[in-house]
Amino acid sequence: MRNSLKQMLRTPMRTALFFLLLTAASLLLTLGAALFIRNRQAAAQYEEQFITIGTVRQKADSFGQTLVWDAAQKDYSIIRTAQYDSYLTVEDLLIPGAEYAAGPEQRAYYGSWAQEYVTASQAENAFSNELVAEFSPLEDCMPDETVQIQITKVLSGNTAMENAVVFFCDHENPEPEMLYQDKTYVARISYSVYQAHGETYEEAKAASPMLEGRLEYVPLSLSSQLYESDGSQVADEFQNGRTIFEVTESFYETDTGKRILNMAETMGYVLYTQPVTGTNKTCLLPAFYQGESYLVEGRDITQEEYREGSKVCLAPRSFMENNGLSLGDTITTRLFYTNTRRNAGSDFMLEGGRSGYTIIDEKGNVLEPFEVSEYTVVGIYDTRNGVGNYTQRSGADELIVPMNSIQAGTEHNLVSCGPMTDATTSFQIENGSIEEFQKLWAEFGDDHLEITFYDMGYTQLQAGIENMRNLSLFLLAAGMILTVFLLLFFGHLFITKQAGRTATERSLGMSPSQCRRSLLSGLLLLICLGSLCGGAGGALLSGNLSVSQTEAEYYDSTYSVGKTEDEEADEPQTEEEESGQSVDAEIWTAAVCVIGIVIVGTSICLLEMNRSLKREPMELLGKKQRE
To answer: Is the CB of residue 7 less than 8 Å from the CB of residue 458?
Structure first.
């Protein structure tokens, strides 16, 4: 060892240069390896945390105009409506080469008769602004403008309105019929969006200024709202027909009277209805994907349960609390209508608004449940009030169930039918595959469908990961090439070029092993020191060039609003734990690189040394003299 070090000190510039260059090469190698490993770990972690979904909307083929009579304007109002030649289905999304991680699916929500449960509407003591009521006008009148009527009997709705005097107008009927004071009429009426108007109203307002801006009641259709799956409405004789009927002695024994009684019976069903939505994966629901709805207890429905159609569900916390239910309890569903046009959040708003439907068929009979099931609650979720677009939010009391668990499909008692929309149709693809999917869609997709992608910022983050990956590979390759080159070059200088010394030592009787120790010990010590210094430097430097910096630069927090205090409390690792694991990984990486350099360096030196030892001393001296 001593002789070897003395020999190296005789060429200090060469020795120092070798040490510095080897340190630099080791630093590059360690830095590249550490960054590459951390980059792969981060990519795998982000792959689990990030989800890419696409929502689908069918474009209208044209826009039609519907004329609606406006009694206040004495003219028709024009309502512009989207027209579709036909409704496309999820099969139109199955294009060649497209790979879906989940879906595509077009969701329906079902109305479940939940009389035995306390719904949000009941808990809030909500009531409908509709009435099925008998009434008489205060005087003979033509309801082509606002008139006054007295409600004599409430068949369904707010019974406090009985005997009340209200404003009334057959507002959307261009040819209303005369009403007589001495007769009793019955109708389905609603407190409308139309302001009272006309001579009677002006006189009442003059007598009582508090009536300024008062709205009027208007009659509603007695037609059913059932649709065929192609979007056409089921034929009903009451479509665009009469809405006000005179009550005679045997009126309620007629078909019309029975229809009105059935409508009165079912009008309050909306207050006892629980929406049920079927899906193939929870993240496909916009409210859950965007974090507006989130699990607070229990677990999510597993992919196996979704696939097999297991009778399990996610239930809202408010519903569970209102009914004294807990995880593992069962909820009975009695599905009696289907809606494929709207999501539950549009009809069952968390703020209390409800959209009801006429729960009768085209013959006036009450709709009966078409599927009864019992679901076990495996997860409880909550939803933020007032966050996000209500057309994509969870509905009040909404149950989330596997789509395959509903055997009836989407054609029974269809009260609303429409095209695919962002709120009802979505799919999941692999992270980072948006561009590839768009190319396929441009070639094979249907121009009538518009797809919007959401990836939580993964595309931008992926660019940072890819940049760091390329940098780490460059550093790793540069470090490996430089290290091998240095070991070969300086091994040649320190060993092959010392042929004279080797020949002299062998001539003096030193054994091959003694010659190896004499020549290699100092060089190997230098290799160890250089690789250790470079490895330590690379480990320290990699901490400042970690992939976490790319997260800060590229991470899009648009859809991070869903993280709650509960979720933060459930984080599996703290920053300190992650930092500690990162340091351990860097130390192990540096150790492996150092050991690798030492092994490679030792191997090269031994090969060079063995090559010299195989030659006779006189041959080595002769070669030295020729050089």
So the answer is: no
Cβ contacts of 368 within 8 Å, gap of 6 or more: 336
What confidence score (pLDDT) does residue 550 get? Answer: 45
Q: Does residue 104 have a cis peptide bond before it, meaning omega lies within 30 degrees of 0? A: yes
Q: Can you tell me the distance from the alpha carbon of 118 to that of 303, in angstroms, rounded to the nearest whole number?
A: 30
Cα 85 off chain centre by: 30
DSSP for residue 360 = B
Using DSSP bridges, classify how beta strands 62-70 and 75-83 pair: parallel, antiparallel or unpaired: antiparallel
Backbone angles phi, psi at 154, to 5 degrees: -100, 115
Measured CA to CA, the distance from residue 271 to residue 113 in angstroms comes to: 10
pLDDT at residue 44 in the model = 73
Q: How many CA atoms within 13 Å lie on the side-chain side of 611?
A: 13
- Tokens matching residue 490: 């300086």
Which tokens sit at 604? 């090269």
Query: From residue 458, how far is each of 79, 148, 162 by CA, in Å?
Result: 42, 62, 60
CA distance 332 to 188: 31
Cβ neighbours, 10 Å, residue 283: 16
- Beta-carbon count within 10 A of 2 CB: 9
Both tokens assigned to 54: 């696409």
Cα separation values, 387 from 287, 425, 516, 519, Å: 10, 21, 76, 75
Intervals of the chain under pLDDT 70: 1-12, 14, 47, 123-127, 352-353, 386-391, 490-523, 542-586, 606, 608-627
Contact 554, 467 (CB under 8 A): no
Strands 414-416 and 273-279: unpaired
Residues whose CB falls within 8 Å of the CB of residue 353, separated by 6 or more in sequence, listed in order: none
pLDDT at 559: 38
Instruction: Give the residue from 468, 454, 620 showing the smallest Cα distance to 553.
Output: 468
Q: How far is CA 240 from CA 14, 62, 559, in A?
A: 101, 24, 45
pLDDT of residue 26: 77
Under 8 Å CB-to-CB from 159, ≥6 apart: which residues?
none
DSSP letters spanning 18-36: HHHHHHHHHHHHHHHHHHH
Cβ atoms of 465 and 547 closer than 8 Å: yes
Q: Which of 46, 419, 454, 112 is nearest to 284 (CA)?
A: 454
- DSSP assigned state of 418: -
The Cα 437–Cα 432 span in angstroms is 10
Angle at 89 between CA 444 and CA 428, to 5 degrees: 70
Sign of CA dihedral 445, 447, 449, 453: positive
User: How far out from the chain centre does Cα 79 lie?
Assistant: 34
- 517: Cβ contacts below 8 Å, ≥ 6 apart: 1, 4
- Strands 215-219 and 330-339, by their bridges, are unpaired
- Taking only the tens place, the pLDDT of each residue in 56-115 is 999 998 888 888 889 998 999 888 888 888 898 999 999 898 889 888 999 999 999 988
Please tell me the predicted confidence (pLDDT) of residue 274.
Answer: 92
Find residue 451's DSSP bridge partners: 56
pLDDT of 517 reads: 57
